[in-house]
Amino acid sequence: MQKIKSHNKRIEDIASTIIEVAGSTTMLVLAFLLVFVWTIFGFFLKFSEKWEMIIGTSSSVITILMVFLIQKSQNKHSLSIQLKLNELVAANSKASNRLVNVEGMTEEELKVIKKYYSKLGDFTQHQGNLQQSHSIDEIHREHTIKKEMEEELSKVKK
User: Fold this and answer.
1) 81 and 9, same structural domain?
2) Contact yes or no for 66/22 (Cβ under 8 A)
3) Most buried among 6, 29, 51, 56, using CB within 10 Å?
4) What are 30-57's pLDDT values in tens digits?
């Protein structure tokens, strides 16, 4: 088990390094130069089938690898942001803790909550104090929209 963790850590480190290098200004300049050199060689080789095959194959391989690296980076970035937001929601006593695991909700449940926040925005426009905080869990006699949202969520979960 330790070997697997060590192996995964090494792969993670290599991927992070490649992502960092690939996103640098130097690599962008090198990519432009590479395309320029490929084009020059194309003129010298009269854009032969061999030249096209080399260009097509190498660009396809690079593209496929970069797509997976970008996706890995995006997943890690999204998870880290989600964890930071979860910490902020959990730390704020006026925030609804139901949103801590919002990424685990279905799209239908998210749409219900979005509709609730739209209605909550409309509700706050009619309040005298726009600084006042409102959340899903607060008990307020004018918040009939909370009851509507809970009923709609219970229908979605069934």
Assistant:
1) yes
2) yes
3) 51
4) 999 999 998 898 888 888 998 899 989 9
CB-based contact 94:135 (threshold 8 Å): yes
Entry pTM: 0.61
- Contacts of 13-19 with C-beta under 8 Å, sequence gap 24+, read 15/69, 15/72, 15/73, 18/69, 19/69, 19/70, 19/72, 19/73
Helix (H, G, I), strand (E, B) or coil at 134: coil
pLDDT, tens digit (0-9, with 9 covering 90-100), for 115-152: 887 877 776 676 665 555 555 555 444 456 667 777 77
Q: Considering Cα of 79, then 103, then 137, then 142, what sign does the dihedral take?
A: positive
Same domain, 39 and 84: yes
Q: Could you count the other beta carbons within 10 Å of the beta carbon of residue 146? A: 20
Domain-ending residue, one of 91, 117, 143: 91
Encoding tokens for residue 39? 């084009």
How far, in Å, CA of 140 to CA of 138, rounded? 6
Q: Which residues contact 55 (CB under 8 A, 6 or more apart)?
A: 38, 42
State whether 116 and 87 are in the same domain.
no
Q: Are 135 and 88 in contact (CB under 8 A)?
A: no
